[in-house]
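LOG
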Amino acid sequence: MTTLSIFLTIENDQQRSLAEHLYLTYKSKMYAIAFAILHHREDAEDAVMDAVYKIVNNISLFDGADRNKTESLIVIISRNTAINRYHYNQYRQHAPIEEIGDSLADDAPIPEDIIVEQETYNELLERIRSLEPIYRDVLLLKYLYHYDNEIIASTTGVNETTVRVRLMRAKRLLHASLKGGADNE
């Protein structure tokens, strides 16, 4: 599906014009976000098209929104779409067990260690995702995507001081969540 055909699904001329404007304004940023996550040109392009489709389906969210909110929504939609595509790609990449056995080095981690590490990572991601969006987004942007505070501030529409405060609070909340989760087990 091309961007033109996606835009033609919008019946309201004003909303169609808004969607086209958003695409032309943010397509480079959307691609940069997708490529940073996927590291593959074609996958990043597909993720951008998927994100554009989601934006078009939710175009009313952008109607009358200020620039900062619009940019934040586009960043979050683009990021989440790319992450979903990344997970989908990882799911599809199952190799036969014979190929995996031949490629393992003698010093490679044992499967149990890999599983425990993945479970720990998944639990951490779940705990982060359970935080309020203002804390979740800054944690993900800072530590998963390695953005500096200035870039986080510009993409989320807040100043750098607010980003630092949110990071500090998010770390406290995450620590409390993890500590509470350990006590429950």
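LOG (cont.) second protein
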Amino acid sequence: MIAIIVLIVVVVVIVAVLAGMYNSLVKRRNQVDNSWSQIEVQLKRRHDLIPNLVEAVKDYMSYEQETLTNVTNARAAAIDAGRRGPEAQAEAENVLTGTLKSLFAVAENYPELKANQNVIQLQEELTSTENKIAFARQFYNDSVLTYNNKIQMFPSNLIAGMFNFTTRQFFEAPESERAVPVVDLR
């Protein structure tokens, strides 16, 4: 009789531990999905601001149609890349960031454009959005790290394997953005 009670207690404990591991994996996976959604919210905001910026500057920059076209094309590619996962999204967003930088660099040549309040406000909103995207990417990558660690470490990797939990990709900056800038103070 005591052996049966001990066996039942052991089985209940094992089931509770396994259920706890499974629930923890589900929680981490959902956190990764939620953090990706936060990136998408900020990227959508960015994508929505860009046509307004292009519209605001195009009258001043009539000779810079190639730059404006590049920004518009990069925006379209970034929107399309969202369906292909974090790696494709990161690559397309980095191209878009580059075209926006070139747009702002060209805008420096137009003093009346730099003084335009609409353009200034749009630049400030884009800068704010870029900061929010950076924070959302950091949170996403932290969530992915925690999740990937959980599904790869023993004993939760046994549960992860049985229920097909798979690793997720980090949202990484390209090699060109990882390089440390050279500062020459001569």
